[in-house]
């Protein structure tokens, strides 16, 4: 059985992965096939839990490969908080909302915050539409994560250390870096691109 946790990113997916690592009858990974193309992009092992916000762009491929057989989780967090967190990641290398603005919205003049809001809404609605009619779905909210994760544990028939899994939600996972670190990383990436250009 395959389990897919779908989300917008910046919604607690790393914490869910850490919690799922305490499950002994499933393997678990986060964005484990994000660098693959073709059929390999969605080729997951059996009895595996995959948590990957990029899958919201590959839902047709996911449906073709797993259809109604897989179990699907929609992981959510307050969309305004998600949008504002993505805004802080705007200049990080490979920023998804920045790529969305430049490629999908064709360099719109809307504010960066409005673009991150639109990014979050688009991914959320993609997931909701995909899940319509699927027989095995559940919602998991970060605002109610301990109760929802307990329900998830039972729903998939998980085995392992549930209390250790729940303890992961009291820790910080992949926290948004400080503005100083963000600025340093941006300048570091900019310098790297300049050096490659002048070689």
Summarize the SSE layout with pairings.
Blueprint (H helix, E strand, L loop, with lengths): L1 E5 L6 H8 L6 E4 L17 E4 L7 H8 L4 E6 L2 H10 L7 H9 L7 H20 L5 E5 L3 H12 L5 H6 L11 H20 L1
Parallel strand pairs: 1-3, 1-4, 2-3, 4-5
Written description of the protein model:
Helices cover 47% and strands 12% of the residues. It is built from eight helices and five strands. Strands 2-3-1-4-5 form a five-stranded parallel sheet, sandwiched between helices. Helix 3 packs across helix 5 and helix 4 crosses helix 5. The termini are far apart. 30% of the residues are buried. The mean pLDDT is 90.
Short description:
By secondary structure, the protein is α/β, with parallel strands linked by helices. The chain has helices spanning 13-20, 59-66, 79-88, 96-104, 112-131, 145-156, 162-167, 179-198; strands at 2-6, 27-30, 48-51, 71-76, 137-141.
Keywords:
8 helices; 199 residues; globular; alpha/beta; 47% helix
- Biggest beta sheet attributes: 5 strands, parallel
Strand percentage, roughly?
A: 5-15%
Mean pLDDT: 90
Task: Determine the fraction of residues in helical runs and give it as a percent range.
Answer: 40-55%
**Series of H and E elements:** EHEEHEHHHEHHH
**Main sheet strand line-up:** 2-3-1-4-5
Distance between the termini: 50 Å
Please report the number of helical segments.
Answer: 8
Given the helix and strand composition, which structural class is it?
A: alpha/beta
């Amino acid at each position: 059985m395959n389990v897919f946790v779908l989300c917008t990113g910046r919604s607690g997916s790393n914490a869910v992965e850490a919690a799922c690592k305490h499950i002994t009858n499933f393997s678990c990974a986060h964005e484990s096939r994000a660098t693959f193309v073709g059929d390999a992009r969605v080729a997951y092992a059996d009895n595996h839990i995959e948590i990957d916000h990029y899958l919201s762009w590959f839902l047709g491929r996911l449906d073709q490969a797993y259809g109604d057989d897989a179990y699907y989780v929609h992981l959510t967090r307050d969309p305004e908080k998600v949008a504002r967190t993505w805004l802080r990641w705007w200049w990080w290398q490979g920023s998804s909302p920045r790529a969305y603005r430049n490629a999908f919205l064709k360099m719109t003049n809307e504010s960066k915050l409005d673009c991150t809001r639109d990014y979050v809404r688009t991914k959320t609605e993609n997931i909701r539409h995909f899940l319509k009619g699927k027989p095995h779905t559940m919602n998991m909210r970060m605002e109610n994560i301990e109760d929802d994760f307990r329900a998830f544990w039972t729903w998939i028939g998980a085995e392992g250390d549930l209390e250790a899994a729940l303890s992961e939600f009291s820790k910080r996972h992949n926290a948004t870096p400080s503005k100083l670190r963000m600025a340093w990383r941006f300048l570091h990436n900019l310098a790297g691109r300049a050096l490659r250009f002048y070689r």
